[in-house]
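Revision sheet: structure tokens.
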Amino acid sequence: MHLGLHNIHISDALSVWRRNLKVYLRLWKTELIAPVIEPVFTFFAFGFGVGALIGSNVSGMSYLSFVGAGVLAFTVLMRTVFEMTYGAYFRMVYQSTYDAILATPVNAESLAAGEIFWAISKGVIDSLFILPLIVIFGSAESFYTILAIIPLILGCLYLGGFALGVTAHIFDIDNFNIFFALFFSTIFLCGAWFPVDILPFWLQIIAYLLPTTAVIDLTRACLSGNFYARHLYELIYLLVVSFLAFEWALRSIRRRMVV
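Predicted:
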């Protein structure tokens, strides 16, 4: 079976990436409002508000430390999903940016790869602004904190590819409501705000099958410095599902854009 990955031309994908970067640099002031402001209010609401009710020991750490990984991962992943859903849909349908790009020698796979690379880059940029807040609020307790970028990159690759694949199958923007209803329904099971092991057993199975659970758990391990054998399996799982989501996105964009 021929993989869409083989059709990617890195130079073309980077050209798409640079196009998105130039747009971002023109709008950077408004683009940074959400990743800077939202985590602050989330920390106050969950870290201090809910934390005062819960107590000081959640999975062997304070709730403020526990929820830090959830705030970081949730904010970064959500930004990636929005970029590859509404952002990609506007470029594809309303602005005809994809049509313009495909009128050049850039092929569909390189276009999709460039879009996903940009979503990952945006996630990294956001994480670099949020991580200092994590440290300031006292949620990071380890010298490994900076390594949290690694699972976040894999999470952005997985969700960026998955979201772009979904977008390629959307023909009415209102249908995103269905996607986001399902997305939000599942992401709250992934251990961002409470430990997965307090859920009923059948819900735990569902939660651990969701790749976002692995992203959040690995991020929390980096922030706390507590690594276990399961983290290696989670890393392998993330690599596999990220590749599958990436490949699906490439194929889906080709089917949508190339007649």
